[in-house]
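Chain A, query sequence.
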Amino acid sequence: MSFKKIELDQLSFNPFLSIGRDWMLLTGGTSEKFNTMTASWGQLGRLWNKNVLTAYIRPNRYTFEFVDKDDCFTASFFTMAHRKELSFCGSNSGRDVDKVKETGLTPVELDGRMAFEEAEMVFVLRKLYTYDMQESGFVTDDGFPQAFYSADPYHKAFICEITAAYVKE
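Chain A, predicted structure.
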């Protein structure tokens, strides 16, 4: 299996389904040492005249260490056919298990960043801006802090330029 690089204006996909339903893997690090985690939250759009993806990662996640310290990482998009593998990557820590070995996913290097051969599409991301989410930022009383952060730390947001897009050939 291989990927071909395409221009972003050639993409035809629904980000609400690709992120929210099918999920993606956020992967930081190099071929020598990397980690990946499942994400079902994120945004795509235009900011500062750039095509961007905003990823949200809790600081207690192992992948956070890799993404936070490097300039670039990837977002790999899958179909529902890989739900079992993505479920495993989202509920197990790379500190404790070898996610590649346990899931059978095949690491591949794209533009010097790690992704997975089984993905339908991969974005290579370059961090532009980060911020820490916090309770004081909520402007409604919809119960989000209690529902999403009662026992877990608030996410850090990573606004990233999409520097390359790859699709399966």
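The CA atoms of residues 38 and 90 lie 5 Å apart. The beta strands are 3-6, 24-29, 34-39, 42-47, 50-57, 72-77, 107-110, 113-116, 121-132, 156-168.
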